């Protein structure tokens, strides 16, 4: 058999290349960017191979908007800024919530990769741990971005008038990416502690609802009791929702604060997950 | 009966040293402990460029731990391990660039196609964009997977997944190919098939191959040299023929192993056998 066609000679040029001896920060950043692109590419391929999940995931936000949203719009129980219907106020919250629900279970994939031996192989490629986690965090947001598009379309069908400014829409997706990156890192951190799929599922179930209800996704923080307001202030989901409301329906929001909090939370999440990664690869 | 480390290094010294001075793999006093258990105990080993080297021993002998230190997944607790002159603990990224690694478990991503699996590793190894297609297609062709490359890996047989993993390792054009139990869990036909591909690779590309196995017959057939590992130490090193001849006429590698390890191979394989059953079941479930 001709084993050689296309398989390059064994003497690898990369070994001798001088760039490897002293790697600069720029090399590191370039590699990080390359890993993010690669892992997002893989995630897109996976979505393409199994699209049923996308359709199923559309059901829950549709129910929230259609049943919960329509009903609470009718009874006027929750105060909203002047001229904004409750449904419009709710929609960005549901967008953030459904992106959260996807990201918070992303750790299951890394546990599956661990059990399948794929993770070990990834860790033997020239990819530093932090780059691997960062790549995966952004790959996790691929599904969230698709979900965000679905929720925006659903909301539009229900008569919510979101912004049509392309820059604001782009920023919306940017916020969704950051939020998902943080929550998927949280999930991968839990995966590094729990190590088992079932345990991660249990913990994930246990924390999603508290995260959701202690945020401003369903109601403004000012109607919460004092203790819940305090918790809400430490909940990254609140900042994500605040930014999305500001961008999509023009409610005054502190975009810089929101973005800074989400970015810092993501950086902390990447660090924690990267530190726990060796536990998974054992 | 145990051989002292001096005898092992004597066997190493007796081997005709090849041209490349640092050797493909060089371990000295390599040690790793899990709690009180010493998994790898002062291992000295030298693998020459271009040879197929077998690390033999029952499950729990310390083979996989040695491999994990070589592939930079574990840092040695003491001693050193160098790959083509590069210290694996000090320069993990550099070592990772020159090795191709196929782990014990069947570990291709079953939710991707064969082509996507190889493409993923081409990207992770920074194969330049202009070379990628050629490399990916070449590696798939070399493993006889051009035709099923577009199918999801969940439809592949065990032997095909193993060949796909070899393609993933090859796409980086590694100088050292590390195979951890390459034929565990495969049926005899797939096993012969996988070996044929590995042998062709080695002959065609002059690649150095390090593999672990507890199948003595395979080691005898396919390895240039072997080291017998037991309870964390190397008990003997040499060519399969020399090791057999040194024992008695008509001895098999199995006999040699029993001679050096005091006949405990059976107990250990029985234990390992159970673990392997569990492992292949897990694999079967995963691949649907």
Report a brief summary of the structure.
The complex is a heterodimer of chains A (about 280) and B (about 290). With about 280 residues, chain A is an all-alpha fold. Chain A contains 12 helices and no strands.
Order of helices and strands of chain A: HHHHHHHHHHHH
**Whole-Å distance between the termini of chain A?**
38 Å
Low-confidence stretches of chain A: 1-21
Q: Rounded to an integer, what's the Rg of chain B over CA atoms?
A: 19 Å
Largest interchain contact: A-B, 41 and 57 residues
Number of helices of chain B: 11
Give the overall average pLDDT of chain B. Answer: 83
Distance between the termini of chain B: 46 Å
Main β sheet profile of chain A = none
The backbone outline of chain B, from C-alpha atoms, is: globular
Q: What is the topology, as strand order, of the major beta sheet of chain B?
A: 6-7-8-3-9-10
- Estimate the global geometry of chain A from the Cα principal axes: globular
Radius of gyration of chain A: 21 Å
Strand content of chain B: 15-25%
Q: Write the H/E string of chain B, N to C.
A: HEEEHEEHEHHHEHEHEEHHH
Main beta sheet of chain B: 6 strands, mixed
Share in helix of chain B: 40-55%
Q: What portion of residues of chain A is helical?
A: over 70%
Protein model, in words:
The complex is a heterodimer of chains A (282) and B (288). By secondary structure, chain A is an all-alpha fold. Chain A has 12 helices and no strands. In chain A, α3 crosses α7. In chain B, α9 packs across α10. At the A-B interface, α2 and α6 of A face α3, α4, α5 and α7 of B.
Which SSEs are present, and which pair or pack?
The complex is a heterodimer of chains A (282) and B (288).
Chain A: H1 13-16, H2 25-49, H3 52-75, H4 86-103, H5 107-115, H6 118-123, H7 129-157, H8 166-194, H9 197-213, H10 226-233, H11 236-249, H12 255-280
Chain B: H1 5-14, E1 25-34, E2 37-47, E3 52-56, H2 63-70, E4 78-83, E5 86-87, H3 92-98, E6 99-102, H4 114-124, H5 129-142, H6 158-170, E7 176-180, H7 188-205, E8 208-213, H8 216-222, E9 225-230, E10 233-238, H9 240-247, H10 253-261, H11 265-286
Parallel strand pairs in B: 3-8, 3-9, 6-7, 7-8
Antiparallel strand pairs in B: 1-2, 1-4, 4-5, 9-10
């Amino acid at each position: 058999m001709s084993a050689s066609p296309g398989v390059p000679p064994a003497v690898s040029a990369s070994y001798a290349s001088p760039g490897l001896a002293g790697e600069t920060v720029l090399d590191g950043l370039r590699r990080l960017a390359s890993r993010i692109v690669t892992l997002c590419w893989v995630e897109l391929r996976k979505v393409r191979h199994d699209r049923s999940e996308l359709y199923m995931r559309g059901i829950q936000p549709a129910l929230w908007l259609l049943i919960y949203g329509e009903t609470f719009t009718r009874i006027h129980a929750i105060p909203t800024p002047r001229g904004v219907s409750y449904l419009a106020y709710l929609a960005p919250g549901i967008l953030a919530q459904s992106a959260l629900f996807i990201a918070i279970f992303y750790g299951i994939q890394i546990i599956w990769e661990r059990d399948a031996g794929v993770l070990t192989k990834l860790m033997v490629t020239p990819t530093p741990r932090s780059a691997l986690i960062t790549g995966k965090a952004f790959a996790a947001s691929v599904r969230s971005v698709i979900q965000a598009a679905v929720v925006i379309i659903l909301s539009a069908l229900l008569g919510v008038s979101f912004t049509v400014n392309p820059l604001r829409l782009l920023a919306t997706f940017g916020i969704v990416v950051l939020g998902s990156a943080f929550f998927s890192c949280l999930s991968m951190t839990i995966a590094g502690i729990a190590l088992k799929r079932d345990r991660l599922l249990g913990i994930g179930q246990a924390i999603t609802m508290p995260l959701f209800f202690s945020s401003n996704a369903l109601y403004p923080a000012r109607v919460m009791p004092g203790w819940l307001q305090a918790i809400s202030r430490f909940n990254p989901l609140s900042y994500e929702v605040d930014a999305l409301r500001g961008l999509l329906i023009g409610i005054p929001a502190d975009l810089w604060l929101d973005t800074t909090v989400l970015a810092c939370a993501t950086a902390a999440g990447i660090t924690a997950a990267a530190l726990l990664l060796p536990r998974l690869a054992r | 009966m145990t051989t002292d480390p001096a005898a092992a290094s004597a066997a190493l010294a007796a081997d005709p040293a090849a041209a490349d001075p640092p050797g493909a793999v060089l371990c000295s006093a390599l040690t790793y402990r899990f709690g009180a258990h010493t998994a790898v105990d002062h291992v000295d080993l030298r693998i020459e460029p271009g040879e197929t080297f077998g690390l033999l021993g029952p499950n729990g002998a310390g083979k996989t731990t040695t491999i994990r230190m070589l592939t930079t997944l574990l840092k040695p607790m003491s001693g050193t391990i160098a790959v083509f002159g590069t210290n694996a603990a000090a320069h993990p990224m550099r070592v990772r660039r020159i090795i191709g690694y196929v782990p014990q478990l069947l570990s291709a991503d079953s939710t991707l196609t064969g082509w996507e699996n190889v493409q993923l590793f081409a990207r992770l190894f920074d194969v330049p964009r202009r070379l990628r297609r050629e490399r990916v297609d070449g590696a798939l062709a070399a493993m006889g997977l051009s035709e099923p490359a577009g199918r999801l890996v969940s439809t592949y047989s065990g032997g095909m997944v193993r060949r796909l993993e070899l393609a993933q390792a090859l796409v980086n054009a590694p100088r050292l190919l590390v195979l951890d139990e390459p034929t565990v869990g495969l049926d005899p036909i797939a096993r012969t098939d996988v070996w044929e591909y590995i042998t062709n690779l080695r002959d065609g590309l002059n690649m150095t191959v390090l593999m672990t196995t507890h199948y003595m017959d395979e080691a005898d057939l396919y390895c240039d040299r072997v080291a017998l590992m037991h309870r964390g130490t190397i008990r003997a090193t040499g060519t399969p023929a020399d090791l057999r001849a040194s024992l008695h006429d008509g001895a098999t590698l199995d006999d040699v192993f029993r001679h050096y390890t005091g006949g405990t191979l059976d107990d250990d394989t029985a234990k390992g056998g159970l673990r392997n059953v569990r492992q292949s079941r897990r694999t079967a479930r995963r691949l649907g």
